[in-house]
Amino acid sequence: MSIFIREAKVLDPQSSHHNKVVNILIKEGKIISIDQKEHRADTVIDANGQYVMPGLFDMKANFCDPGFEHKEDIHSGCQLAAASGFTGVALIPNTDPVVQTKSHIEYTKSKSRDYLTDVYPIAAVTLDAKGEDLTEMIDLHEAGAIAFSDGEQPMWHTDIMLKSLIYLQKFDGLLINQPEDKLLTRFGSMNEGIVSTGLGLKGMPALAEHLMIKRDLDILAYSGGRLHFSNISSKESVKLIKQAKKKGLNVTCDVSIHHLIHTDADLEDYDSNYKINPPLREEKDRKALIKGLKEGIIDVIVSAHSPQDEESKKLEYDLAENGILGLQTMIPALLSLSEELEPAEWVSKLTSAPREILKLPKVILEENSTTNLTLMNPQTSWVYDKDSNLSQSVNSPWFGQELTGKITATINGTKEHLSE
After folding, report:
1. What is the arithmetic mean of pLDDT over 105-110?
2. CA 139, 177, 209: angle at the middle one, nearest 5?
């Protein structure tokens, strides 16, 4: 099958066609030409006013499979990801059982093999993600684990943190940690501040994040290795990582789309759909995260896609589970930030940067390359409701709203998803 994309604007800083309006001819999974000419094809897409980018990559999502398939599974997750523009997704290990053996890696790889979206399992660093005993990381790496993390659970054990960074150097493995001192956030349900005080909810201080980042950076300086901080959420965290990068430490980080959009002020109505960990911080933190992206301190934007069933969310706020859906609303959410963050400023954070950190092959929009691209219409409006929702869960503060920005096509090799 051949596809002709007419008059799309390229968003790919790696490509010689960046910021140019081009015509793209695709045949049998290859980009045949990128030029100004007309070509015949089985499918023609008039992309005037649209953006074409390398296929989006999400470095942090949970498809809940195995164990929690009623929330999401690999089938629904892969279909959702493809329709949302993602040709690659890295999955955290917080399933039941935790992804910690070669058979668990093979389960995820085999179930996702036939889908458009390439799925990369992240294996647990410690058994059952409890932070106490190391998994067989060399075996997991050879089985196909793309990185190592306890996912939603922070690595609280200092000695385990040190040993992990040393151990992973045997194969240049990446350690991912979500920084949080659990003793400081215990029983908390939102950011500690004026809003939490007014709502009468126990707060989770940003200090819990800063202390762990400081600890981990000191250990990294001592041990060497590669460390990635997941879901940083505060102004001070950006500052600490900026200083570490200036010192030459091999450290990277990501921020969730939720922390770029929302703040703790959105919790005035006790809406549990805003409840996540790390919690939504203050406006000064949100602005610092935006600035960190612009300055290149924050390397990646993630969806932090975390499906929860209604029984887990329709509870008193402090009893509800953490988590927000993130994949399907990623593009509309980013476009809503247009006054602060232009598409050219975030495209690499969702395409080249996560692939580089995970040491995956580059994806570039050039002639004779394997097709791996996302076409997005920034003007299309649509309503995010039960009819358009592609997840098995509905825990999103965007649910029921009209959004602007929609994926027109996602193509990965010979597999494509074209919007209706």
Report:
1. 98
2. 165
pLDDT at 420: 74
Cis before 397 (ω within 30): no
Q: What is the DSSP string of 328-352?
A: TTHHHHHHTTTTT--HHHHGGGGTH
| pTM of the predicted model as reported, rounded to 2 decimal places | 0.97
pLDDT reported for residue 1: 85
Strand partners, 417: 410
Q: Are residues 249 and 174 in the same domain?
A: yes
Q: How far apart are CA 287 and CA 289, in angstroms?
A: 5
Number of compact structural domains in the chain = 2
User: What is the edge-to-edge ordering of all strands in the sheet holding 251-256?
Assistant: 148-149, 174-177, 226-229, 251-256, 300-302
- CATH number, domain of 172, equals 3.20.20.140
Residue 111: in which H helix or E strand, if any?
A: helix 102-112
Give the range of the structural domain holding residue 236, as residue numbers without chain letter: 53-357
Tell me the pLDDT tens digit for each residue of 14-65.
999 999 999 999 999 999 999 999 999 999 999 999 999 999 999 999 999 9
Report the alpha-carbon distance of residue 296 to residue 245 in Å, rounded.
10
- Residues 225, 195 share a domain: yes
pLDDT digits (tens, 9 = 90+) for 179-237: 999 999 999 999 999 999 999 999 999 999 999 999 999 999 999 999 999 999 999 99
Instruction: Say what the pLDDT of residue 416 is.
Output: 97
Which among 383, 379, 380 has a CA at the least distance from the CA of 402?
383
Cα end-to-end distance, the chain, whole Å: 18
CB 376 within 8 A of CB 347: no
Residues 120 and 101 occupy one common structural domain: yes
Cα(39)–Cα(49) distance, integer angstroms: 19
CB 302, CB 254: distance < 8 Å: yes
Helices (H), 144-282: 158-168, 182-185, 194-199, 207-223, 235-246, 257-261
Buried b (16+ CB within 10 A) or exposed e, 110-126: ebbeebbbbbbbbbbbb
Give Cβ neighbours of residue 118 (< 8 Å, ≥ 6 apart): 87, 88, 89, 112, 412
Sequence-distant (≥ 6) Cβ neighbours of residue 73 within 8 angstroms: 63, 64, 65, 392
Residue 251 has pLDDT above 90, yes or no: yes
Q: How many CB atoms lie within 10 A of CB 336?
A: 17
- Answer yes or no: are the C-beta atoms of 328 and 391 closer than 8 Å: yes
Candidates 135, 147, 143; CA nearest to 59 is 147
